[in-house]
Write a structure and sequence with these properties.
- Keywords: Hydrolase, Metal-binding, Multifunctional enzyme, NADP, Oxidoreductase, Riboflavin biosynthesis, Zinc.
- The chain is of the alpha/beta class.
- Helix 3 runs parallel beside helix 4.
- The protein is 29% helix and 23% strand.
- The strands form three sheets. A nine-stranded mixed beta sheet has the order 11-10-9-8-12-6-13-16-15, sandwiched between helices. Strands 2-1-3-4-5 form a five-stranded mixed beta sheet, sandwiched between helices.
- The protein has twelve helices and 16 strands.
Length: 368
């Protein structure tokens, strides 16, 4: 591994981030084709997952790919799907060397891409910027290895951890700069998730606004009984952005006419098992989203959903926006009851970054 290897892999990772939120269920791969120290082609996974990053970069490089080095943020695919394997495309293009970040754990690949390259006489180097690449591909890895998308939980609160006054007033606790960053986070994820209580109380659109977005993340509402109002902003905006509704799978959990009405409006409905607590089972909820193809989900509450996800150990990343005001004990807490008796039972997270955003503080945490 050389200094050039790390430099060009860093470039490939930056390109891959351009596909985040747009290419699920495929990983957001980046690829750079380099010949004689100069970039001849670059690409990233396109919307919907195709074409793959390698295909885009090779097409841009053309004949310059022959004898070149390709830097790819994940092992090139080795299986035939709707497109031929990228490993074979690299061989056909005459690439002399391929540098990857790590082996793809997908059973359809799992070293097979590297094997195709080596059998064709292509030099393969792997493990370059592996930690950074695993962080970038965390959603894809979670879906492949654990069967669920990676989950980010966002909390925007007062200094004392409240999300609204006792009367329910909540607009706006944080400032416009923080709210804009929340929209940017939505754009980087496949889906935005909230609980049914939040949907009923706020009637949110959950869309990305005022950022020139050319696409919208999937909006997901977890509501066991599907007692959501069939009017207002959420109902009216179904044709404008994908809406998935998770509801109870047991008989009597939801009225058939509610399912039919939302489906007729254009929403997708997904039945989910119910936990003994009476809420939708958190693990089953995320498993359903993983089976549907999602790799990265951005949860914006409410309190009961946040508590259940934390209790189940399903939160991979916490993003907090804290404002400089206090609402007191009568204010509504950001996280519902968790039934903890001892500190040792509380889920722990490791601080990864802190910064000022307008008049607020943004702090990010990763699961310890």
């Amino acid at each position: 591994m050389t200094g050039d290897d790390t430099r060009f892999m860093a470039l490939a990772l930056s390109l891959g981030r351009r596909g985040a939120g747009r290419c699920w269920p495929n990983p957001a791969v980046g690829c750079v084709v380099v010949r004689n120290g100069r970039v001849a082609g670059r690409g990233w996974t396109q919307p919907g997952g195709r074409p793959h990053a390698e295909t885009v970069a090779l097409a841009q490089a053309g004949e310059a790919a022959r004898g070149a080095t390709a830097y790819v943020t994940l092992e090139p695919c080795a299986h035939h799907g709707k497109t031929p394997p990228c490993a074979e495309a690299l061989v056909a293009a005459g690439v002399a060397r391929v540098v990857t970040a790590f082996v793809d754990p997908d059973p359809r690949v799992a070293g097979g891409g590297h094997a195709i390259l080596r059998q064709a006489g292509v030099e393969v180097t792997t493990g370059v910027l592996e930690a950074q690449a695993r962080r970038h591909h965390a959603g894809f890895l979670s879906r492949v290895v654990q069967g669920r998308p990676a989950l980010t939980l966002k909390l925007a609160t007062s200094f004392d951890g409240r999300i609204a006054t006792a009367t329910g007033e909540s607009r706006w606790i944080t400032g416009p700069e923080a709210r804009r960053l929340v929209h940017a986070e939505r754009l980087r994820h496949d889906a935005v998730l909230v609980g049914g209580g939040t949907a009923r109380a706020d009637d949110p659109q959950l869309t990305v606004r005022d950022m020139g977005a050319a696409w919208q993340p999937v909006r997901v509402i977890a509501a066991r009984h599907l007692t959501l109002p069939r009017q207002g902003r959420l109902w009216d905006s179904v044709p404008d952005a994908p809406l998935w509704l998770l509801h109870g799978a047991r008989e009597g959990d939801v009225k058939p006419e509610a399912v039919e009405a939302w489906q007729a409006q254009g929403a997708r409905t997904l039945p989910v098992e119910v936990a003994p607590s009476g809420q939708l089972d958190s693990a089953a909820l995320l498993s359903a989203l993983g089976q549907a193809g999602l790799t990265r989900v951005f949860c914006e509450g409410g309190g009961a959903l946040a508590a259940s996800l934390l209790q189940a150990g399903l939160v991979d990343r916490l993003v907090g926006f804290t404002a400089g005001l206090a609402l007191g004990a009568e204010g509504q807490p950001s996280i519902g009851a968790m039934g903890l008796d001892r500190l040792a039972e509380a889920p722990r997270f490791r601080l990864s970054s802190v910064r000022q955003v307008g008049a607020d503080v943004m702090h990010e945490w990763e699961r310890a």
